[in-house]
Amino acid sequence: MSSSAEGDRRAAEGKSTPPAIVVLISGRGSNLQAIIEAVRNGEIPASICAVISSRPNAPGLEFARTAGIAAEVVDDRRYDDRQSCEAALTAAIDRHRPDLVALAGFMRILSHDFVRHYDGRMLNIHPSLLPEFAGLDTHRRALEAGAWEHGASVHFVTEDVDGGPVILRARVPIKPDDTPASLAERVLEFEHRIYPLAIRWFVEGRVRKSGDQVIFDGKPLAQPLDYADVKNGR
What is the Cα–Cα distance from 22 to 221, expressed in whole angstroms? Predict the structure, then answer.
């Protein structure tokens, strides 16, 4: 169900509840924590109805429990194949009827069928300036490539891994003495800024996906928005 269709459903049912978000995690959940804080502070006019982890010992589950959010586990190691695992994950998500599914360090490659089921209402945060350095080990790869800047990107999830249309990016200069760990730490600071912002735009209806394009405030984006420009009102 698309975001607009879900909104129409809530209106038809006479519901005035805020948009619902399900967050998927696999690990420590620092981006989850940033989203929780943004919801709590009113920066994101929505509710997080559930946090679902692919690992039962993911530290991020405790963030959810502390915030009073339903914390669930769909342990991918308990399933014999991807199809059965994703069927369980889809059922767990769809019980909450979310307007948005936010991937926050969810370490699974998703099938085409799964992605199509949530087309236009699933976002991801990736630690690089996409399309550069899709995949894993982005910080090490950026340093080895001699890049002069790095960063993070929020994008719609499509069938191409880390290849969906990008909404917003934040640029981080690379220092001469950077290590993968030091670069990752600085990039993470910006992840925590741009992901809640992009989610806010989505639930406010300012951003949506149309085909392979991002529509922002009713107009197609020729290129991803730059966080520095947004912050400075450019």
Answer: 26
